[in-house]
Structure formats: structure tokens, C-alpha cells
């Protein structure tokens, strides 16, 4: 019995030693696996301390193993993730396993790592943890989300196709694709992109796409595509291959943009660059190009061309009285009528305002232009109906011909322009031909305009004064200020030669202001010498009179020179009444209220409407020299002069006769009751210094 017991005890002790040795072997193998594993392992006490960590765990967090043992694990966990870690500990204590928990931890350098952790609570109340560093995966997922968000928010459509699958189906489209095409994602996934082309398979871009897909290269094309509703749009498409790790093309990504509106805008800009916006006609730029081509064709095939410059008569009054909308409608109708009168291949262009140019190309005979011109004049003279109102106008046309040999084709427009002005001078509503003589006249006017500007800038004018004589006493009662221009090389240039040019160019305004100021200043000098009863007569241009600041300019001249308004007399012609007579009469009344005298110059040669004359606050009528010259020998001139004097006196107006050059004329006028004389018989126009001598001698 004792022997058996001893044997059993020995066997038990031997078994325990074997078990211990086996346990040590297992522990060593487990510790070796624990240390050598690439997985992160650790054990954690329920009090929150790290009990054991493997090398992978320590290396990931950039610590030594001994630095981590005993460290509170929660100090490594990101503050925002600590609640979920505590929750996991509670689950473990409740007997649950943690199969996957993602949270962030800090390494020694304060770098963040995402860990994916599994954990279990052992019988010894130790938590065994296995973890992986999934930081790269999290970064990749974040990038994927960002890329997807970019695709979804992109204004451009994005489509991805699988090139390895049969028929290369669409596998992805973004929202912009749906917006552009009208198709939903569900409607297009699995289809080939060619359905967007409708039946339009023969486009140049389709071949380019096929070649690009075959060669796996980048592609850029513009295609005509069709939306779900059947409407067409221009698809600006970029295609690029997507390669896998084996450098094999697996997909193509397409980025598309609807450029229909952009192309329309570009086409509109291109059209507007060469066409008039209002009428749609070619503008000066396109006209120049066609003119050049027409000259080349005419020269090559022994033909000729004609250029017609067309200007509407009195069109400015249309805009002034009816507004620009009315005028624009008239211009559109003019454009339409002109296009109806020309042949196919000819050109109608609008080059500004109410100015049009017609280019007649490939004329066999020069006289072929005449019937076309006459048709145009007739068509443009018909009434224009706009917004219930009818308007009549006519046109002045200048024509020039050429065989195409001219060096600068645009000179033909200038030549036709010169001829058009000749048509204006001939009474409007007609056509005139360009000639070399006409060119000389126009060039002279152009040169004169330049020299006028120089005279304005350099104060190159001078005032001469012609005394006005009282018919009864023979005393000087006033004088007329007359502008003189002494050119450096050409001597004195007649006002008849340059005033009309100045009125056309607007240069008359600074000239008129200078005349007013100078005349008022020298009238003030006379007053300071005791001659304060003399009247200073100044001619007023109709162009100046119609300006809104006309009255202000008169007041400025008086105030700056401290001249009594009673000493100033303004001579106006009857033409100022032709446009807006009511405004003209209003101006004249204001001038008379100031005490300024008003004289009608060249009476009897212009408008001469008695109905208006009786309304005008006129103080004096000036008989034109045309009636005075032959007053002794021509009974009609004598009768007209006597009639003017009688009429003026009955209207309580004074009468002055200009151009009195003989004693006989003076005697006749005195007997007829004329109040004042002016002319060479009494005194020629003279500079201010000579006027002073003349007045003192009287």
C-alpha cells in the first residue's frame, strides 16, 4: 500500500514536471510569436495600464517596449475617441468580444495613427488586444471620398467606361452628366456612350474617338450630341485611359462640357465684329474685305465695280423729334429696302449713323449702276410706318466707278462720300458722280479744316469793323464786327470760303465764342472812351444758335467784359427758324428781355415767312445787298426794297441796308425811308485801331 502510494506520487510529480516543461515551451513559442508578429499585440490591465506590448506595437508608436509597460493606455488615445474605447472596455467586462474597433492614437512624435483593434478579456482579467495600423487605408478612403465628392460637384460631366467589358459599357456618370444630357444614372449605366450621338455617326470626331480608343491615348473632340429630349448640344469631350498596376488600360474616363452657349456667343461676337448690330448688315471691316476682293476680281476679269455712298436726308431731325427708337426702326427698314434693290453677290453695308454703302461688284458696263441707283432713290422715298406714325425722307447718293486697279480700295468709299456731299449741295434726293475736279475741291476743304484748327489754336483771327450810318443825321450809330483770317502764306481768306467748313466740322463754335468775346471787349473799350451809345453788331451762326448753351455763352461774354446789353446787337439769318421755330422764338424773347438787339440778316433771301416774322421780337431788319446792288436800274429790286421798308416800319422795326456803294443808292434808300446805311460808300471794314481814328474824326 505504501509502495503503491509512493509510486502514484512519483508519477504525479513526473507528470507535473512534463506539463511544466510543455507549458514553458508553449509560453516561449507564444512569446516568440508575440514578439516577431507584424501585428500589433498588447495586454492591458483593467486598471488601464499596459502590461505587455510586442515590438510591432512599440515600433508603430515609436516607443521602446519598456517605456510603454505600465503606461496608461488612455493617454495614447485621441481625446475624441476615448469615449468609444471606454465603451469597448465595458463591453469586454460584460463578457463580449470586440471584433473590430477603429480609433486614433498618438505616437511619441504626436503623429496620429488609425488602429483597427480586436480584443478579449481573459480569465485572469487581462485584456488581450490585437491591432493593425490602418492609417494609410483611412487616408486612401478619405481621398476616395474627396475624389468622389469632386466628381459629383464638378460642373463638367464625367463618365467612366469599362473597356475590358463587352461593348465598353458606362459604369459611372456624375450629376453634371445627368444635368447636361437629361438622362439619369440608372438610364445610362450599362450602355455604350454612342447613344448620345443619335443617328449622327458620321461626325469627324467619332473617327478620332475610335482611333484614340484603339491606341489607348488621350482624346479631345467636339461632338454633336443629343439630350434625352432630342435637343442638340455641342459636347467638348476629353477622354483619357485608366491603367491598372500591370499598366493595362482597364477604363476610360471622359470629361464633357456643353459649349453650345459658348459657341453661340463666339459666333455672335464674330458676327458682330464684321456686321452692324442694329441692321445685321456688313460693317466697315467686312466691307473693306469685300471691296478688296471685288477689286481683285474686276482687275482679273476686266470688269468694273461701283461704290455708292448713301446718306439719308434730314435724318437727324427724326431722332431729335421722335427719339432713337423711332430712328432705329427707320434704319432697319432702310437696310431692308436697300437689300431688296441689289443683285445677288452685291453688298449693302452700314458704316455709321444714317450712312450706308452699296458695293456693286462684277459690272459688265458702267451704266448698269444707273437703274440700280434710281430704284434705290425711289425705294427710300416711300413713307416709313413706325408705331402708327408715318415718316417721309429721301437720300443723297454719291457714286464712284473703278476697274479694280486702285491701290487702296477704301479710297473708293472716300470718293463716293465726296460725291454724296455734292448731291447734298445740289438739293438732296439725287445722285452725283465722283470726278477728279470734285476730289480737288474736297481735298481743299480738308486742308482748310486743318489750317482752321491751327488758326483757332494760335489765335490767328482778327475782327474788322464796318460802321453803320444813320440816314438822317449822317452820324455813326454802330458797327458790324466782321471776322478776318490772314493766312501766313495765302493772305486773307474770305469768310465765304471757311465759315461753311467751320459749320460742318463744329469749329464754328470756338470761332463764334472768340468773335463774341473780342467784339464785346472792344465795344467796352469804346464805351470807356465815351462812345457808349454805339451798337456792336455780331453775326451768329445757326449752328451756335441751336446749342443748348447758346444763351449762357452770350451772358458770359457780356459779364466777362462788363458790357451793357443795350450795346450788343445779334444778327441772325432766317435759317435759324427752320428747326424748332418755337425754341428759336423763346431764345429771342429772352435776349430781348435782357436788352440785346436782334436783327434779321440777309432779309428776303431765306425763309421770310411773315407768319413767323410777326411773332419774332425783332428790333431790326437788314436788307440783303442782292437787292441793293441794282436798286437804281432794276424796278423789281426797287419795289422789293420799298416793300421791305414799309412792312418793317408797320411792324415797328428799324431797317438797315447793307452793300450801299453809291450816292444814288444812298439817296434812293433815304427817300424810301431806310433808317441806317452800311457799305463802301460810307466806310470799308477796318481794324479796331483804324476804327478809333475814324470815329474820332467824325
Can you give a write-up of this model?
The protein is α+β, with helices and mostly antiparallel strands and 698 residues long. The protein folds into 5 domains: 30 residues; 98 residues, Beta-Lactamase; 110 residues, Beta-Lactamase, CATH 3.30.450; 160 residues, 2-Layer Sandwich (Alpha-Beta Plaits), CATH 3.30.70.270; 246 residues, EAL domain (TIM Barrel), CATH 3.20.20.450. It is 45% helix and 25% strand. The protein is built from 25 helices and 27 strands. The chain has an 8-stranded mixed barrel, surrounded by 4 helices. Strands 2-1-5-4-3 form a 5-stranded antiparallel sheet, with helices on both faces. A 5-stranded antiparallel sheet has the order 7-6-10-9-8. A hairpin with a 2-residue loop joins strand 12 and strand 13. About 1% of the residues have low confidence.
- What's the architecture of the largest domain, going by CATH? Alpha-Beta Barrel
Number of domains: 5
Instruction: Estimate the helix proportion, in percent.
Output: 40-55%
Summing up helix and strand content along with how strands pair, one would put the structural category as alpha+beta
Secondary structure tally: strands: 27
Tell me briefly what this model is:
This protein has 698 residues and is α+β, with helices and mostly antiparallel strands. The protein has 25 helices and 27 strands. It folds into five domains: 30 residues; 98 residues, Beta-Lactamase (2-Layer Sandwich); 110 residues, PAS domain (Beta-Lactamase), CATH 3.30.450; 160 residues, Alpha-Beta Plaits (2-Layer Sandwich), CATH 3.30.70.270; 246 residues, TIM Barrel (Alpha-Beta Barrel), CATH 3.20.20.
